[in-house]
Structure formats: C-alpha cells, structure tokens
Amino acid sequence: MDNFPELRLRRLRRTGAIRALFRETQIDVGDLIYPLFVVEGSRKKEEIASMPGIFRYSVDLLPHEAEEIAKLCVPGVILFGITEHKDELGSGAYNPQGVIQQAIRSIKKNNPELIVITDVCLCEYTSHGHCGVVIDGYVDNDQTLKLLAKTAISYAEAGADVIAPSDMMDGRVKIIRESLDKNGFHLIPIISYAAKYASAFFGPFREAGQSTPQFGDRRSYQMDTSNWREALREVEQDIAEGADVIMIKPALAYLDVLRKVRDTFHYPLAAYNVSGEFAMVKAAVQKGWIDEKQTVLEILTAIKRAGADIIITYHAKEAAYWLSHI
C-alpha cells in the first residue's frame, strides 16, 4: 500500500535523539565477556601478532588486568591457559596447580565481583593439539569425557563461577553436570558451546593458545560449516543434558544459526565473536579502510539483534569504553 506522502518513515530518523528513542536493539556493557589468555611464568605480557592489542598474561599480572576490566564494568572473563608441559592426555588441564587454576584463584582473590568462566577443553594441553584423547589417530569421545569432567571439577574447586565446555564431544554436558552435582557444585552453571563449527575464523586463536593440531583437523568433532539443522539438534541435546546457557561459535558467519536457535529455544544464548573476526577488523583499521568504533559497535549490535544475550568478544574493553562515552 502506497501511503506516501502521508507516511514518511524518515520522520523517526531525523535527529540523533529521535533515532535513539526508537532504537530497537541496544548494546550494553553488561552483555559482554572478555577472553583472557594465561601463560606460565612471571612478569609476562606477550602480544599476539595476529590479534593486535590482545596479550597473554602470566598469573602475577592478572590482578591489574582484571581490575581494568572490572572498572570498565565488563561483568566477566573467560580463561584460556597456555602451558609449557603438554602430554597426550592433556594433564595440565586438570592439574590442581595448573595455570588456569592459579589464574582463577588470583582473580577471585583480588577481584571477587568479576565473573570467571573457564573454557573446558584439552587442546591447549595435549601434545597433539586435539581436543581429546587420541587412539589410533582418532579422537576417542568416551575416553575424553572422563578427563573433561575431571577438568571441570578442578576448575570448580579453584573457584570458577561458570564452566564452559568447548570440546564438542557427545555427552560432555551430561557427564560434567553429573560430576559437578556429585561433588557439591550443583550451583555452578554450564555454558555449553552447543554449536561450535570447524571454522577458518579460529586461526588467530590457535596462535594465541598454541593449540594447532599436529595432524589432521577437528572436523570429525566440530560441526560442518554448511549445517544449520544439525545445530538445532546439538542445542536440543545439550539442553536435555543440563546446559544452563547455550553458545554459537563463531558469531558473524553464523548469524542465521543464532537467529534460528533464538527462535526455537527459550534459553539464555551466547555468541562468540571469535579471533578471526576480531583480526579482520583490526587489519582493516590498520589500513585505514574502516572506522573502528563504528564497525565494532555495528558488529556487536548485529550479534545481539540476531538473538544473543551474551557476547564473548575481544573487543569488550574497547566497546565498554566507547559505550560509556557515547
């Protein structure tokens, strides 16, 4: 129906104040989670070449970084550990004195209000770089589950607020939930990487976490990038197994999946704005091709508009500053 000139949709775009009044999607600092990479040793702050402005920190430097994050009102962090000792069973992941266990205790001691989420996977701790136990060249699902549960308990004992399994083994949410409950951690929620795709956008993370597979790839356990119906099955299964929050990873190339999950399930939904997505923005900014603030806030708005309640992003600190100064 042609109602012009009586109907003029531009009336609600005329000024900044009017646009803000009728804005449908609002990004808030409270939506954001900041990833932190933690290394062994002391006085280490190592910039990651493919992720400008992102660093690996030794545990002794974490309180200062955590304090900065808290001052920006970013509500939480998700931790990834890099260990010098790697073995076939990823024992560093569930070592009570491991780098992540130390990091949890340090952050909770110095910044107790900051939510600490721990990624549960073995890839950063295995000598072969895969996310589980390798038997005859194949990642064995059921043998891996036992070690994932052991890792989750170790993190909970160190003081983690939230457990986030990212390995994509079948049944891992169930065994982690049962193990947490059995050991008195029934109040600790699980954010499940329910639909984690075997994505090319993970490249910079593998440099950051020193977790590149030494043979093959992760396509036998991470999801095929072409599938969306399978994502709904993965999400449904993880909810049935006890996940409190579900996650889609990556975010930008999978906004359609994010929206389909949002429309299908009435559960808290997270999205991971991953390293490759971050690196592309930074590279274009360095070339002077795009405006960083406008681009980042537009990306985060798109992820939230697609349905995310929580956004894990390496842009969190910058975005928090920009949002507080708009």
Structure description:
The chain is an alpha/beta fold and 326 residues long. The chain has a single domain (27-324), classed as Aldolase class I (TIM Barrel), CATH 3.20.20.70. Helix content is 37%, strand content 18%. The chain is built from 11 helices and 12 strands. It has helices at residues 16-21, 62-71, 99-110, 141-158, 172-182, 203-209, 229-241, 255-264, 275-286, 292-305, 316-324; strands at residues 32-39, 45-47, 55-58, 76-82, 115-120, 133-135, 138-140, 162-165, 191-196, 245-249, 269-273, 310-313. The strands form 2 sheets. Strands 1, 2, 3, 4, 5, 8, 9, 10, 11 and 12 form a 10-stranded mixed beta sheet that branches. Helix 2 packs across helix 3 and helix 4 (141-158) packs parallel to helix 5 (172-182). The longest helix has 18 residues, at 141-158. The chain is globular, with a radius of gyration of 20 Å. The protein starts with 15 loop residues before the first helix and ends with a helix.
Derived from helix and strand composition plus strand pairing, the structural class reads alpha/beta
Q: Taking Cα atoms only, what radius of gyration do you get, to the nearest Å?
A: 20 Å
- Count of all domains: 1
Strand fraction equals 15-25%
Look at the structure and give the CATH class: Alpha Beta
> What composes the largest sheet?
10 strands, mixed
Please give the share of residues in helix. 25-40%
Low-confidence stretches: none
What is the annotated CATH architecture? Alpha-Beta Barrel
